[in-house]
Design goal:
The chain has 471 residues and is of the alpha/beta class. The chain has 22 helices and 12 strands.
Length: 471
């Protein structure tokens, strides 16, 4: 590996294990656009890569095969006069190329990137690939075939859950997620960017942990100057990103985009399935269910449990920070400067909601801070008509943590009014659920809580954003 791969500890461990296995490996890698899938596979397997091929977006079968042959001729001149017309013929030539390479203990990697683009309508690529794997690759012990794609729903349905020739053939799978806060901090350190954690968090609230977006941050940036340059200036790198991302991932990107827009305009706590359908004015059926599932699998929407008093419901909310930021600010203030917008009350309110999304993604780190990460527990939100609790951690050790989330640019002070508000939340939860567990109030803030009589009386634990950066 010639370049540093920041973070990705779990993924690197999986890939490392594949190099040591006793059999050939078929690995499926998926995740949203610009998340770093290609970089991870290319750089980790750089010394073992013997063939790499990337599909063409919107390419015909003839285009894809021509592109495939160009790549094959780059590694072997013997096929320069070949002109296969089908994928069975093309992959047969790849078999011939591989057969020229003697088997050995050292693994050899074949990387097919943007696999869903290759398997275009009537291309017959998938059955040909199934034959390639079953008829040839499984007869050797030294191959690693990596299939990769941004269309997560395709990879899951046609590769991981394949009911045909690839049924139960995947040996390892990786869903590549956005960087968490600690990985984002490590990435900035790698880029020689010195930035306080509160500033990193403000960038994360707007851009999320998408590595390609974070590449645009420069040394000397503040969160304000970075967001302004990347999102609001005339030639801003992400100015048209929202319009591109769904079209590049999904066949019917307009439908997915409409779901996201509906959620962005809905309740901050999230929306019920029936509420989304009603707002969109669409039928509740297969198409809606499939599009929702694709957005969830691709990391744009989060599904989580919520309890209204003691009645369970499933809520949906946008989990992609950039999509939410785009719809909240970039569409509304197209010709504005972020240097004039970031002080608006609207932004401060939005920060609170986005901070809740970030905390939900870092629930493991929160549990570590509470010393309960090894204790089985359930997470959900709770509300009635008198109180709302952002995160409830219901633990098997007869303890419940009621987590209050507060994004604030300074130490937060719990005054008498806020003390009574927190006390009411605990009381309402206790009375509604009739739980016999110990109920503790936890506050998660950006800069900490100022110690006073109220904080000491109501809080069992205080967590700052430093805990969210835990490694």
């Amino acid at each position: 590996m010639s370049k540093i791969i920041v973070g990705r500890k779990k993924e690197k461990r999986i890939l490392s294990q594949s190099l040591k296995s006793h059999r050939s490996e078929l690995i499926a890698v998926y995740g949203r656009r610009r998340i770093g899938k290609t970089y991870l596979i290319r750089e980790f397997y750089k010394d073992n890569m013997i063939f790499r091929f990337t599909g063409l977006q919107s390419g015909t079968r003839a285009d894809q095969i021509e592109n495939f042959m160009i790549k094959l001729n780059e590694v072997s001149y013997e096929f320069r006069k070949e002109s296969p017309s089908t994928w069975l013929e093309a992959l047969h030539l790849l078999k011939i190329y591989l057969s020229r390479i003697d088997e050995s203990k050292e693994k050899k990697v074949i990387f097919i990137d943007e696999f869903p683009w290759v398997d275009s309508h009537k291309s017959k690529f998938l059955p040909a690939f199934e034959n390639f794997w079953n008829d040839y690759c499984t007869t050797r012990d030294d191959l690693i075939v990596v299939v990769c794609g941004s269309a997560a729903s395709y990879i899951i349905k046609n590769i991981i859950r394949n009911k045909g020739g690839l049924y139960n053939r995947i040996t390892r799978k990786i869903k590549l997620e956005p960087f968490n806060l600690s990985e984002t901090e490590d990435f900035f350190k790698y880029k020689k960017i010195r930035m306080k954690r509160i500033e990193i968090l403000k960038i994360y609230l707007a851009l999320g942990g998408v590595p390609e977006y974070l590449e645009y941050i420069e040394p000397g940036d503040s969160s304000v100057t970075a967001i302004n340059r990347i999102c609001f200036e005339t030639n801003a790198q992400l100015k048209n990103e929202f319009n591109i991302v769904f079209k590049s991932l999904f066949d019917k990107g307009e439908y997915h985009e409409k779901i996201i827009q509906t959620l962005a305009a809905g309740k901050n706590k999230g929306m019920l399935r029936d509420e989304i359908i009603k707002e969109m004015k669409v039928q509740s059926g297969g198409e809606f269910s499939n599009r929702m599932d694709e957005l969830i699998q691709s990391g744009f929407i989060q599904k989580y449990d919520s309890y209204w008093d003691n009645r369970k419901s499933t809520l949906y909310r946008i989990s992609d920070e950039f999509c939410l930021f785009y719809l909240q600010f970039m569409t509304k203030y197209k010709n504005a400067s972020w240097e004039h917008l970031f002080n608006k009350q609207e932004y401060k309110i939005w920060c609170g909601y986005s901070f809740e999304t970030v905390c939900l993604k870092h629930i493991k780190e929160i549990k570590v801070a509470l010393l309960c990460d090894q204790i089985p527990s359930k997470n959900y939100s709770w509300s009635n008509n008198k109180a709302q609790i952002d995160i409830v951690i219901d633990r098997d050790d007869d303890t419940i943590n009621l987590c209050e989330l507060k994004f604030y640019n300074d130490e937060f002070t719990i005054d008498e009014a806020y003390y009574k508000k927190l006390l009411n939340k605990a009381t309402q939860f206790q009375e509604a659920t009739q739980s016999r567990k110990s109920i503790n109030t936890v506050i998660i803030t950006t800069m900490g809580v100022k110690s006073n009589e109220n904080s000491r009386a109501i809080l069992s634990n205080e967590i700052t954003i430093d805990s969210l950066y835990a490694r």
